[in-house]
Amino acid sequence: MVVPAFNEEKLLGETLASIQAAGRAAFDAAGWGWELVVCNNNSTDRTPDIARAAGARVVFEPVNQIGRARNAGAGAAVGEWLLFVDADSRPSAGLLEAMRRAIDSGRILGGGSTLRMETEERIARFMTWGWNRVSRFRRWAAGSFIFVEAAAFRAVGGFHQELYVSEEIELSKRLNVLARAQGREFLILHRHPMPTSARKLSLYTKREHLRFLWQMIRSRGGSLRDRERCFVWYDGRR
User: Fold this and answer.
1) Phi/psi of residue 19, each to 5°?
2) 147, containing H or E segment
3) What is the C-alpha separation between 116 and 213, in angstroms, rounded?
4) CA 146, CA 135: separation in Å to the nearest integer?
């Protein structure tokens, strides 16, 4: 399991504890070996110390970009399958068990999960509902939970390192093409939605979110290659 982390000292400890508990419940009884790799993406807080204290292997990526951080973590991982989990998300044992069963079927090249945003705010819940429908229909994985056969991940070249946002959708598209070519499937799990933090809703104003969306639309996606315009992910606000 690979966890990219940039200044995540507030949430990382709880996330890693949840991942480890779910991993023990889902994998250990089935005889699966697994590891936990945290990529410290140039953090300036206690992120790497918290990761080491939790027993994770820590690697370092100096360029502050989530695609690069995920690729660095994947490069250090030794397993036949990769699972990417964001530092503000907590997979359940049920979700990991569903992933294990999908892998055991032999029909799956990779996949993701629907989401459960941890908020009661109606607009956020509506947007999550909308994303989940799109995710299952288009077979696009959310960045908070992506699993993929390591050989397939390397065959397509990993995450795109020019994108600062939506790199998981771009990767999903390439993996879907490869899955079809191999007669396999890229599957979005949905029975155990991935709990993920809604912190951006409180850390950023609606005006800031609309500014990002307007820039993305106006630039026809070009702003996704500009770190400054993807400030919601990269300005360090936590």
Assistant:
1) -60, -45
2) strand 145-149
3) 22
4) 12
Looking at every residue in the chain, the average pLDDT score rounds to 94
Residue range 134-170, pLDDT digits in tens: 999 999 999 999 999 999 999 999 999 999 999 999 9
Give dist(CA 175, CA 156) in Å, integer: 7
Give the tokens for residue 218: 């106006």
Query: What are all long-range contacts of 161-165, with beta carbons under 8 Å and residues at least 24 apart?
Result: 161/65, 161/67, 161/68, 161/71, 162/225, 163/67, 163/224, 163/225, 164/65, 164/66, 164/67, 164/224, 164/225, 164/226, 164/227, 164/230, 164/233, 164/234, 165/224, 165/230, 165/233
Write the class of the CATH domain 2-199. Answer: alpha beta
Please identify every stretch of the chain with a pLDDT value under 70, giving residue numbers as ranges.
none
- Residue 132 near residue 231 (C-beta atoms within 8 A): no
The three-state secondary structure class of 168 is helix
